[in-house]
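[job 0412] stage=fold_complex status=start
inputs:
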Amino acid sequence: MSLPTTLTDFTLAEARDAVQSKKVSSRELTSAFVKAVAGARPLNAFVTETPDKALQMAAASDARIAAGTARGLEGLPLAIKDLFCTKGVRTTAGSNILSNFVPPYESTVSQNLWDAGAVLLGKTNMDEFAMGSSNETSHFGPVFNPWRARNSNANLVPGGSSGGSATAVSGNLCLAATGTDTGGSIRQPAAVTGTVGLKPTYGRCSRWGIVAFASSLDQAGPMTRTVRDAAILLKHMASVDPKDSTSVDVPVPDYEAGLESGVKGLRVGIPKEYRIDNMPAEIEQLWTKGIEWLKAQGAEIVDVSLPHTKYALPTYYIVAPAEASSNLARYDGVRYGHRAKGAKDILDLYERSRAEGFGKEVQRRILIGTYVLSSGYYDAYYSRAQKLRTLIARDFTLAYEKCDVLLTPATPGPAFGIGDKSADPLAMYLNDIFTVTVNLAGLPGISVPAGLTAEGLPLGLQLIGKAFDEATILRAARAIETASGFNAKPTQWWRAA
Amino acid sequence: MSVDKDTVRRIAKLSRLALDEARVGPMVDELNGIFTWVQQLNEVNVDGVAPMTSVVEQRLKMRDDKVTEGGNADALMANAPGGEDHFFVVPKVVE
Amino acid sequence: MSKTIKGATGEWEIVIGMEVHAQILSESKLFSGAATAFGAEPNSQVSFIDAGMPGMLPVINRKCVEQAVRTGLGLKAQINLTSVFDRKNYFFPDLPQGYQISQYKSPIVGEGEILLDMKDETITVGIERLHMEQDAGKSLHDQHPDSSYIDLNRSGVALMEIVSKPHMRSSEEAAAFLKKLRSIVRYLGTCDGNMDEGSMRADVNVSVCRTGGYEKFRVDGDFKHLGTRCEIKNVNSMRFVQLAVEYEARRQVDILEDGGTIHQETRRYDSKANETRSMRSKEDAHDYRYFPDPDLMPLVLDQAWVDEIAKSLPELPDEKKARLVKAGLSPYDATVLVAEKESADYFEAMLATGIEAKAAANWLNNEYFGRLNRSGLAIADGPVTAEANAAIVAMVASNMISGKIAKDVLDIVWSEGGDPKAIVEARGLKQVTDMSAIDKAIDAVIAANPDKVEELKAKPKMVSWFVGQVMKQTGGKANPGVVNVLLKTRLGIVDEG
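[job 0412] stage=fold_complex status=done
writing structure:
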């Protein structure tokens, strides 16, 4: 197979092979990406660029390769979502309240990557505290989608909250990136940027060192150009972590193995409740195409029902803010982070530090969360939502008696314009309509690029799997990737800017 | 169930978020929009359904009783606004 | 003591309940690996978890769980094999996470009881529950006029919160409850009970009601019969508990007699002024918004593990007391001996040498404890070992030395050390039982005191003066019993039965 001529066009798998076989040095590869990152500032995908560190790490990797002690991701430049604490490197969670926070510790997931020899290009922009579906709530400004509609100069959102990572991958600013997904924050941006995004089973990747948003929903995952790349990256991100009580004791398999084994005999469920009212025709058509592709490769298509689907979004918007309101109480200006000046007493310190440090969406969700947990409302809201969650999870368990994976659209539409949906919080929340069920049930889900809209914008299809069955959704995603032949790339409009 | 201005002010206080009076009204509307929307959960019969207490089907892991952390006040204080002599400092608190 | 207070309009009953916070003895904290030792440099025993830093997660310490179970078993309480950790949300500078991990609806230990040996009766005080929770850090308010200084060493240390039922009826019972609870946890080794170091603190709930109210409560369990209660927080000595209860009960009676009502509130005991004062703050009452901590699964214990812990329990005060009473001690003496684990262990060590229980108890209570008290020493710091004291008691029992000589020997061992037996040998302190030697001494005394011999005929009770003289003559070494008998025979005194 011939390698791309432009270093930044490599997939993770191609780069790995090239570097391991010494066709390309890490220094060359890293320099190319460092340059690409610097040249892509109009996209605002990075909060912190780490070129010096990247080149240092690259040099160390080259030494290892020369010595024959290369590890699984040796010398490969990656972008890390700014929600992962990176030791000695500023970590902001997209927020003013952490705008100068330099962690004295490294998250388990990113440490796993450095232990495998990967190189840090920088920390990617994101919706503040991972709350958002468009990367418009970041204190550091919005991220722009590398994709633009045909014949249009309008800036589009890259999705969120992992918008910076999605843009970095889509714009060839890194080989791959990490994201986190609480209600769709990996899968939705992946879908609208034409990239692959995988949210593993809850408990697959450690949450230690990842700034917490909603503890029972957050999960780290890979954002990549190809399905194979996602398998490779997930293999290294995942681990059993004794420092995380919710990390599940299941060994990490080799996700690359079996990737090409096809979908013959695979039972693919099509949940009828995902056919929502006013579903855009293009989405419907793409979904139908996806069904055809899998069928053509020997999969068995099964109609299934997930009766509580419509309640997933409101359930999510009770549970997630509730947990967030508690998780964000620690940002109080006392031990780290933004502290309001001239506070006259402790109450003033708290109230102003937090009001100055948190953006509007975060404040709104904290208020929602505090309210639904408060005395007199806990049963009506939080407790009821947790019961709905049990029902939603049960829907999947029952469906999986009849099928092995589920195929659904990833998003209700393509990337939208900056500012289009920021007026009404509810309109924004609806972007997660196909993805939140998966977080509520703790299951794995992957978004794989499947086609373009009439305006030339990417759309993705989602596969949802059984707990700890990432292998199956990966090979099904590979089958879709193969059948769709999706190889469109955004025009690099920001270079001209 | 809907919220009013007093409720919003009270919730803001509980959350330790300073809320300008000018923002209270709009926040009431935004929150009510969301709370009205989530009311649909009341349509569902949840009798006999247990709330999901843990997503993970696993026993709580326990660790050995050993000292493995701490002893690094410098790292701890590195990001502290206005720390002194290894103490965190805040405006005087009256208990 | 009376269980009622006389007011102007009649009699009032006092009802007391207590919540005791006891720090668990363990090397590291409840959810982190930082050390727990008292008195360390500020913020030197703080994990990033204890400091509530971004992305940190709790992992529970098995030893702390074991200690809580052990304590529950010592309180004859029900051990709940499944319990849940909840977050108690509130803001305070010494609470880094903005919430305390505690147990709200499902504690690890359920109902139990503690027996109190009061002067005239034994009372059973019910235990409502015991749960585990994190301790908070410490705030110093007197270092600077405008600032408070926060030390997080204590943040995250494991606490047991032991909640009693409102079964105490007087200030003495309240103090006795705390004393007994402290004794039990020290026996078990689950808490050191050092109230001056803060390892044990009591929140005391006090209410008053008209006579008969308490009985009604015991019948139907309705708290209304007990009157409105006030909580006195963080009382850190048994004496203060007693004083605080007395002040508070009187305060409440005075208000009610004046026609006022008691407002349920939190108060603080001021030991300098000997009064309780309202802690009512400017803010709203706390709404803690308890919800199950999503970072932790429910705690599930195996019955087999609990059974193992039960087997490893030491003999507790009540059982020890029963055994000692059976061995011949008076209930009072037994109670005194078992009250402190140190004295009980010391006593057992003495018994282990083979001496008789009653003699050992009398010796300790009458001779050794008095000396310790006068010197302000605790048993552990006393200069005489259990074996040495036992040796003295044994020598008295075998008539080797007299009771008086025994005291002298104790004084010598106390100030100079040494083996009691060797001291007796070296200084020739052995009791003289040789009849002829005593006869000689009697002869000498009679010969020297003819006038006293005359007086004796009229006052037979004067024989004791003669005994004293003979003892003096023999340097205190004669066996007083033998002297008595021989003297009476010689002087012709008939023992009146």
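[job 0412] summary: Chain B has three helices and two strands.
[job 0412] exit 0
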